[in-house]
């Protein structure tokens, strides 16, 4: 946390220190420093290794720290700045935290998660299942400076890149037509406004159509999406993968949001006899998760 110290002096002692402070111009300097700090929070957070979004605590365990591999397994290799490395470094809420809905209420089911990612949910019912997948993907791309790769399809078929949105152009509801109706904004706040727009006009139907199906029998990779596109549909993200090279086995974790919009959380494996959240790979279809069962053909991968 970065703190800006206010100038010393008792502003209530006969009023004189406050008057001297104001008249000397130090008050203006303090206000200016405070404003600079506030507008620079995302950049400062990145410098300090903190996420640019609001978090509930300053000290965190990461996903990799919170959820160890099963006995005999190790995490698969991940290169620096990869989606895999970024997902493993995500901050987690304290143990035993409840999953909260977008309005702050507790989710009715608290038996589906093993951990909760400390990432904010808008105060609107928007960041649901596919939205959470797209949010994590986009936040990673933002973190590595790949803003030009942030783009998603709308349900109406149009492709909506952040780079164009950031110029002040705004897409139609189908994403196929654009007009200049906003102000240019390359900031993190502008990126979040873009993501809100994506949440409104994209979903499982559009996301499933921009991903590439993975052939049967192939083990999932970190960042893959297991998805049923439609109305309704559902999507979960492969958040981590471990392997036991000697046994030739792999297992993976799944992250989801759900309806209504809620905290993104790591799912339990309802088929696990020992309560482990790790799912076996390759996937044996149908894949049962706590709130959705996916059929063969649901495993998909990003094109890039």
Architecture overview:
- The chain has a domain of 39 residues.
- It is globular.
- It is of the alpha+beta class and 304 residues long.
- 26% of the residues lie in helices and 20% in strands.
- The longest helix is centred in the middle third of the chain and has 15 residues.
- Strands 2, 4, 9, 10, 11, 12, 13, 14 and 17 form a nine-stranded antiparallel beta sheet that branches. It has a two-stranded antiparallel sheet with strand order 1-3.
- 32% of the residues are buried.
Rg over CA atoms: 22 Å
Structural class per helix/strand content?
A: alpha+beta
What shape does the CA trace take?
globular
| Extended strand count | 17
Element order, helices and strands? HHHEHEHEEHEEHEEHHEEEEEEEEE
- The percentage helix is 25-40%
Estimate the strand proportion: 15-25%
- List segments where confidence is low: pLDDT < 50 over at least 5 consecutive residues: 1-24, 30-45
User: What is the end-to-end distance?
Assistant: 35 Å
Largest sheet: 9 strands, antiparallel
| Overall mean confidence score, pLDDT | 88
The number of helical segments is 9
């Amino acid at each position: 946390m970065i703190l800006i110290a206010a100038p010393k002096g008792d502003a209530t002692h006969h009023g004189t220190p406050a008057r001297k402070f104001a008249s000397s111009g130090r008050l203006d300097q303090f206000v200016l420093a405070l404003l600079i700090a506030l507008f620079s929070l995302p950049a400062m957070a990145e410098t300090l290794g903190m996420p640019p979004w609001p978090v509930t605590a300053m000290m965190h365990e990461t996903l990799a720290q919170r959820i160890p591999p099963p006995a005999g397994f190790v995490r698969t290799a991940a290169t620096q700045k990869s989606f895999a490395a970024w997902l493993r470094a995500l901050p987690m809420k304290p143990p035993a935290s409840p999953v909260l809905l977008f309005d702050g209420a507790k989710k009715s089911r608290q038996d589906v998660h093993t951990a909760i990612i400390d990432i904010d949910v808008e105060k609107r019912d928007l960041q649901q299942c596919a939205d959470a997948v797209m949010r994590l993907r986009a936040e990673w791309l933002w973190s590595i400076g790949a803003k030009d790769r942030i783009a998603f399809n709308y349900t109406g078929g149009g492709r909506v890149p952040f780079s164009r949105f950031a110029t002040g152009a705004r897409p139609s509801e189908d994403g196929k037509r654009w007009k200049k109706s906003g102000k240019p904004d390359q900031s993190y706040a502008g990126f979040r406004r873009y993501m809100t727009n994506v949440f409104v006009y994209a979903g499982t139907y559009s996301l499933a159509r921009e991903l590439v199906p993975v052939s049967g029998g192939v083990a999932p990779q970190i960042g893959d999406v297991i998805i049923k596109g439609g109305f309704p549909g559902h999507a979960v993200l492969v958040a981590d993968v471990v392997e036991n090279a000697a046994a030739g086995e792999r297992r993976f974790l799944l992250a989801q949001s759900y309806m209504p919009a809620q905290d993104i959380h790591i799912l339990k494996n309802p088929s696990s006899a020992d309560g482990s959240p790790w799912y076996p790979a390759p996937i044996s279809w149908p894949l049962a998760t706590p709130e959705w069962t996916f059929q063969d053909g649901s495993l998909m991968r990003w094109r890039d």
